[in-house]
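We examine the record.
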Amino acid sequence: MKILLTMLLAFTFSAASSQTLYKLQPASTIEVDGTSTMTDWTMPASGFSGQLTWSKEPAKTTYEALKMVSASLSVPVRSLKGRDNTMDDKTYAAFKVEENAEIKFVMTSVVAPRGFAHGAELTMVGQLSMAGVSKEIRVPVVISHHADGSFSFAGTANLNMTQWNMVPPTAFFDSLVVGEEVAVRVKLIFAK
């Protein structure tokens, strides 16, 4: 029994130690693009955080053997800022920011038909939580592996706010109405 327990602990430690954690870097960008009855708009985010765990050390394995174990992203709702602040408070109200201060994405799986080689297109599948509602989304991204060992993921998630029970913001006695559809553009850079 003692030998079996020792082997189990050694296997667990070995499996966990072969995983490699990468953290989101400050040069990463997230922007939300949308439309309204008056103009198109963009709200960049700031102060977000995230991490990515690989099954093995990327530099020490072939891309075919590499697997993404986990990935997560957290964006403070109040970090979304419009060009002139006109719609910021109305946007925060749509997110129900007092009860739901963060937008969160947690990867549940990844579809990588060509593996994780530089320039490969893959689909990240996960739970997006905002405004108190969680829904599964699929985000197509392109992965890039850089000479410094970092990885970047670039892609766009097209979302309809009403699927998260959000009411699109309005202003100026409803003469400005924001469209339900938004595009969330990301360029996420992860490094050890």
Summary: The chain is about 10% helix and 50% strand. The longest strand covers residues 176-191. Residues 1-16 have pLDDT under 50 and may be disordered. Helices lie at 2-17, 88-94.
